[in-house]
Write a structure and sequence with these properties.
heterodimer; A: Rossmann fold; 3 domains; six-stranded mixed β-sheet; 21% strand; globular; B: 370 residues; mainly alpha; transmembrane (chain B); ABC_transp_permease (chain B); transport (chain B); cell inner membrane (chain B)
Chain lengths: 563, 370
Amino acid sequence: MTRVADGTAQAPPLLAMRAIGKSFPGVRALSGVDLTVHAGEVVALLGENGAGKSTLMNILAGVHSDYEGTIECLGEPVAIHSPRDAARHGIAMIHQELNLVPELSVAENVFLGREPTTVRGTVRRKEMESRTADLLAGLGLDLPPRRAVKNCRIAEQQLIEVAKALSLDVRLLVMDEPTSALADAEVRRLHAVIRSLTARGVGIVYISHRLEELEEIADTVTVLRDGTCTGRRAMAHTDRAELVRLMVGRPLDELYPRRAEQATSAPPRLAVRGLTVTPPDGSPAVHGVDLTVAPGEIVGIAGLMGAGRSEVLQAIFGQYGAAARGEFTVDGRRYRPRSPGHAIRSGLALVAEDRKAQSLVLGNTVRFNSSLAALGRFATPWRTVRRRRETEAVREQVTALAVRTPGLETSVGLLSGGNQQKVVLAKCLLTRPSVLLVDEPTRGIDIGAKAQIHALMDRLASQGTAILAVSSELPELIGMCDRILVLCEGRLTGEFHRDAARGPVADQEAILTAAMARRAVAAAPSGRTAGPGALGSVAAPSPVSDAAPGTASHELHPKEPGS
Amino acid sequence: MTSVLKAAPDTTGAAAPGRLRRLLPLFGSMQSYIGLVLIFVVGVATKGDIFLDQTNLTNAIGNFASRGILAVGVTLVIITAGIDLSVGSVMGFASMAAAMMLFHHDMPVWQIVPLCMLIGAAFGAVNGVGTTWLRIQSFVMTLAMLSIARGLDRQMSDNASVGTTVAGSDGKLTPNSEAFQSLGTPGHNVLVGILGPDGIYFPVLAFFIVCVVFHLVLSRSRFGRHVYAVGGNPTAARLSGINVTFVVIAVFTLSGMLAGFAGPIDAAYSASADPLAGNGYELDAIAAAVIGGASLAGGKGTIAGTFVGALILTLLDNVLGLNAVSDNWQLVIKGSIVVFAVVLQRPDLLGGLRRRITHHSRTDRLTEEK
């Protein structure tokens, strides 16, 4: 740890990866990629999903043991074929999905597998806990070492991983999308920690999609596309436009291609009055929500985490069964939520929030997953499936959505995030829905796929589908939606329009104000405000104190356990 | 991942190997075939004359048929990420029920078999309800049912065997008893005249038919798709409109029903129902499914694989028996084969092993150079 930033010019780099190549069966994942990291430097690794970032970092971390090319640490060639080799050379990686044991304490996680023991072989608990406390203090984190990790917030867990890496005497730390689940204040704290690490001479490889973040933290940036290196820049001498061009390799399709709304005098495809539900699983409750979605309209739902956005979609889709009360009509017919199966038969489709956990059977094929919800369309009187018709329909949909897959019989688990999301969409569209409910449709997918999914939503709307969309990204909602409804603690607190002639115009500040208006709402006599007229009163916090105890985090962000 | 999937013309060229690739898993994994062939070769090499005899082979399969039928039901449950430990006991209960219906009530076989299937299905349905509505893990629920069904079986029979060869006043078998015996004894046959003078041995026929029917159900029907989806990701299955509770209950009910079907066959084969009949059969059934490529994690497995797995266990028993290997060693060998089969089905495991060996030598060379 004696190497300091000013010595880097002459000293051999901390890490030099040269001409790295890697093939998977049928796929050339990387070829001829170079990466250099000096002590005290933050190198950003940028690229779309599937560009090879994870493969490159997995090689460095010893996950993939066979690769082409050479790796040098401090000028010495090294062979990294297992995570243990990587640890021996002072390389640690913090994966996007954190590798902590939720049931164990903070200290037990930090020293997992390397617990200090007495002569008799028992664990020296006290020592472990005091050393953990020291490490955490060094990161500016005040956390009892005995607390179970499952009771820590995501941001804290992230820093526990950092502490674990530091306890290993790490020289090079790889962070894969470390901020994807963090709120702004937590991102700032993580960046402060990163700066203190680099001041100690640690090299950082930082993988992120968020360009604005890289401007703040990175010294240099290396861009990957389709497994090759397309550019290396000093962060100070580049700009976002250039980085996007290097990343995407083509002029980016317009990110928000929403065409102006046609006049919607047609009766709504989906109408909900007084939706009230208290989910049995402890998710946020929804109180008396009214909404309509006309044919060809895209309606967005905004709100803080815990405001009940996803719950509105899930209640409409029948996930809470008859526990969801209210009056519903779909295409003019009365509809009662009963079960997801009933919802699909009634013309609804849901793109769920978490595609891996809720939407896909990862070990099964593209064909199996795409047709799963629509098997009734291909059934014979004997309840068997007509394979040929099924394959044709799936191929047609997969082609229309431009899913990049070697074939229909490929496991969806092998596809990139964006392509998995397209398979989920294919599954929904094969049921020919008249109302499409989408929950975080572009979370965790790269910018190219994002633009494609937005274009698809626009195309579906222009064909007459009604779309109700939930998103944590306000620019996405503002860019794509004709109307935005704002939820706060399960109640509607605002409605904004794309078209100024129809009501207040959607902008980030107004939406955020409405999203944090819960005290005012609790004070309102009706318990519910609707329409643009209510907004003025909503914006001013009222002193009434009988509001529900505060639970919402005041960051507009999706995941926040413990809130 | 580099090419956008194109429409028809692109795929027609690859149609032939594509079809072959689709057909291959239908027959189970290649490795199990190799195992089957190996055992066959050993059988022929050591006791060729006796082993290849048709009577020996049909007897061997007939002996295992009831367990094979159980294995089909267990495979269904395993694909939904569950386990059914109760099938052996339920089969024992059904065989006792069949023998008592015959001995005490002189019922005809066409009544006994469906009734036994109903009894088994009832046990299975209770398993299914316990795992879904009461949310008891299937391992625990069916372990309890293993004990319950065995207890009821012993209570009902008063711990005594019941014979299925019932002699009439003239000293010959009664017609109903004779018909019942044809379920499990070579030479007696319900199908005489249809399939030649000697007909075909019923346990073997029953096993084949059960395999074909359930293979078609799993690979062709909507229900089959739902079974795989529920095992692969229950949440995704539910959000795709599948009634997960129904699928799980149905699968346990079918498994119980097959155990009920195997009961009379087993009783006829042994010419009596023993209160301990079927003890430990569930383990053979699970072993057959696992050798055939089913994963206890769910979402994976085929009836064709289970069929091959059952054949492997059958022929193994037979070959070892012919070579006078003691029962004790037979158990040890059977267990080792299960482990071996599972390892063979994990190419990643084998590849990793090979890589580790080569890398060790490579790292050694690197250090030598220094």
